[in-house]
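Hi everyone, sorry if this is the wrong subforum. Our group has a chain we'd like a structural model of before ordering constructs, and none of us has done structure prediction before. Sequence below.
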Amino acid sequence: MKQILTPILMSAAIGLHAQEEMPTVWETKLEHRFDYTGTGTEERGYSFSADDKEMTVFDNKTGATKWTGRYKDLTPKLSKVDELIPFWESDAVFLFDRKMGKDQIAVLELATGKMLWNTDKYQNLSDENVVYIPEKDGFAISLKERLVFVKAKTGEELWSTDKFKGVAGQYVTTPDGKLVMVNFVPGNLAALFTGFKNQIVKIDLANGNILWENTYIGRAERKVISKEFLYDLNVEGDKVFLRMNGMQVYDLNTGANIYTAAFDYTPDKIVGAPAGAKKFGVYHAVADPVIVGDDLYVLDMSSKKSQYVKKYDRNSGKLLWTSPEIKEARAIPNMYVVGDRILLQIGGNVECQAYIYRRERQSDGSYTIVEEWRIWRPNVKPNGVQAFNTADGSLAWDSERFRKGITNAVVVGDQFVVCSGKELYSMDVKTGAEKFVVPVAKGGVGNADQIMTYKDLVVVVGDKGVSTFNMSTGEAVASGKYKKADLEDVEGDRMILKTAKADIACFDLDNCTYKEFKARTGAVTSMSTDGNFVYVYDKKNVTKVATR
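Answer:
Right subforum, don't worry. Here is the predicted structure as tokens:
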């Protein structure tokens, strides 16, 4: 959006935003409460809600029940479940009844509720050590002593191998129909896998044969709540590229290491775990490598006292230069290459995720269980912004401006925009000079919690709403004032903010108008993948509301 609002129009726009509600598409009251929810894509067409004794699958378009049932009627050996794991790609859901070392597992077809298979052969499984592999329509199940592969629809065990330890992680299909994948050990399962070592393997899923194996540097992991992998695998020609704390490259045919431009890094103690956290992780504390043509730029964070930028030839792995020290940076969340400059954001927002489980004593002496799945973005110091020359790695400039604070930095076209929380700075990429400084208060939504890009705009997520700025001119473009809320989701031109009491507001990023929905405290909300709807799960009620 190119239009710039005058101050009078800005004030009028802010005043008009707060009254419109998100239209309700449908509301359904289920026959039971929920402990588990899952929202399928609009294309898939159905979602579910379940508790420890029964489950309902409902139609996304109408809210009508597709099927509902008690586990004791759906399965031969389960009357309750202690855990439920959906695998959307396979149209299956795993149900677990934990029984003192003799877990009962039943697998249902999600769309119909039909039982596919059940077993007590596999113990201590969780959502971490079962992986669906659609290329072979099967599940790779990681046990203490072996990796087992079973048919998704029948549970028939096709093969097992003791040559792969740990959990099957992200994988990539090779041109000859095999898989290259890495193993990993989730933090809460570390004691399960004795003799673990980092492995990257090429495996034939038809029979479980390991065609080659090698080791990798670092720690492969997934986020504890949202489950995204924190690394990436891809095959180009006869090379396998593993992006994990830098880059590691292997020969696709033999597994030989071609080169390594990687380091060990664990963000220990830069953010403390909240009380009662059973699972906890700190993410995006180190920027991903940047590839420009045949050039590979990597942050080396192997030392806690000094860090470096390193430039490599991407094809051969030859080290071309190492920058001067970046002293005592505990986190470097963003690195950009613009023209002949490498731009670093030192400190600022990182991402944390935690599963929190605690018992709270009530006034009558009883206890209640509180569960929380929390995602937040704490700020890590020290802060700063530096730029290096792409030609030789020498320091181009260092800004003193952000020593006291920074949320994050983004690139908009050829503009480098840095937010201190109170101001937006447009920095000259060549020199670090400030082209202009804009108080975020001009957007009318308080101080900034973070910034991001949308089209050619900078979006400010503030203490009390959302605003946008045109960074060619520094002028505020649009604003939507709301109450204190955290960023919940972004999809295309739609952004969801959610309050501590579970009220949600959906902003249109083209003009910062918004619609809201007032939910009960503790409600679970899930945005559709196309950004057009939000599903609200509240006690026994499921409500689908439109964002447009």
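For your construct planning: Residues 1-18 have pLDDT under 50 and may be disordered. The first strand starts at residue 24 and ends at 29.
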